[in-house]
Design a protein that fits this description.
DNA Polymerase III, Chain A, domain 2; alpha+beta; single chain; elongated; 372 residues; 12-stranded antiparallel β-sheet; 3 domains; 44% strand; 14-stranded antiparallel β-sheet
Length: 372
């Protein structure tokens, strides 16, 4: 293998594989990237056996070939180079010669035949979405996936087809950790045929979010019996789906609400940040007093002190006093955009629904806390 590639493309490709490789593993090949020089491109492949990323980058190939080597080491080397072009050449003993300007490295590698087998795609249905809407939907749901590895049904994102008010089919992504729930929808073209109920892994969503470079880029999502693939241009992320039964989330969505509160995002966000300082370290609990024209947040910490914040608010319905984990609201604000937030409430211990007034394609549920 002998090729020339721009430093920018080399760093871009190696940066992408860092989220896929396994750094702490008994199988050193899972920390490797497979370099394959063919035609006019350099293909980079990385896998952790559950997620496989394959991406092509333009290169001037003098000699075709393959080499597997530690992805972290090559990434560190690439970032220190200063010249615009980098030469990658395989020398004796499967050592990769990296030459750029006055710099030269020789990195120990191994033959491409030692790299783990790449899974065969099992595409049975395909749908198309735009990059910007897909990334937005991931941002609005990723944070509420459960981190508890023992809760198999909550360790991924549930996907389903719904119909929007305009009659167009939408892909709905739903996540929950048991204390909160999020869903966000994306208009798509094609057919959603996932077969049996499966979950998309948290890591897959996080990696797709990082891979989306342009809002207007076209992305294809394909599904097999137990796999999915996200493809755009010259890159593809293949994913093994999670086995698990996602709960019937509609049971926690209140059919009606007794109270609706509208708050300004900036004022509410600032008050949450300040209230968190005095909130309990264990569950971040804050008292919410919904009053006629204001929302009063208060928290008391026996060791640190107390805080009281007043946020202007429009309340429809009777006043209510309850409590919430303040970080759940902060996560919603971080993941969304807009000037206002609507909070729909029942009684003190009923699930709370959070909406963006100008949108009908996302929704958030936060469970209240007992304040004893």
């Amino acid at each position: 293998m002998d090729l020339h590639i721009t430093r920018e493309e080399l760093i871009r490709g190696l940066g992408r594989v860092q989220g896929i490789i396994e750094r702490r593993t008994t199988n050193p090949m899972l920390s490797h990237v497979l370099l394959s020089a063919r035609g006019s491109s350099l293909r980079m492949t990385a896998t952790d056996l559950h997620h496989t990323l394959i991406a092509d980058y333009p290169a001037r190939v003098e000699k075709e070939g393959d080499l597997s080597l530690d992805a972290g080491t090559l990434f560190q080397v690439a970032r220190t180079l200063t010249a615009a072009t980098v030469q990658l050449r395989v020398g004796k003993g499967n050592r990769l010669q990296v030459r750029s300007g006055a710099s030269e490295f020789n990195i120990v590698g191994t033959g491409g035949e030692d790299f783990p087998n790449i899974p065969v795609r099992d595409d049975r249905s395909t749908l198309g979405v735009t990059g910007g809407t897909l990334r937005r939907a991931i941002e609005e749901t990723l944070f509420s996936i459960s981190l508890d590895e023992n809760r198999y049904g909550l360790n991924g994102a549930h996907l389903e087809e719904v119909t929007g008010p305009d009659g167009q089919p939408r892909l709905r992504i739903v996540t929950t950790d048991g204390s909160r729930l999020s869903y966000s929808e994306v208009v798509y073209k094609g057919q959603l045929g996932m077969g049996r109920k499966v979950l998309l892994p948290r890591k897959a969503l996080a990696e797709v979010k990082k891979l989306i470079d342009h809002d207007d880029a076209d992305w294809q999502i394909t599904f097999g019996e137990r796999s999915a693939a996200f493809t755009s241009g010259g890159l593809s992320l293949m994913v093994r789906l999670v086995e698990g039964e996602f709960p019937d989330y509609r049971q926690v969505l209140p059919a009606v609400h007794k109270r609706r509160v509208t708050v300004d995002r900036e004022s509410f966000g600032g008050a949450l940040k300040r209230a968190l300082i005095m909130a309990s370290d264990r569950n971040h609990s804050v008292r919410f007093a919904f009053e006629e024209s204001q929302l009063v947040l208060s928290a008391q910490n026996l060791e640190a002190g107390d805080v009281r914040e007043v946020v202007p608010a429009d309340l429809e319905g009777a006043p209510l006093f309850t409590g919430f984990n303040v970080k759940y609201f902060q996560d919603i604000l971080t993941a969304t955009r807009g000037d206002k937030l609507q909070i729909e409430l029942g009684e003190a211990l009923d699930p709370c629904i959070v909406r963006l007034p100008e949108r009908d394609d996302c929704l958030f549920v936060v469970m209240p806390m007992r304040l004893d």
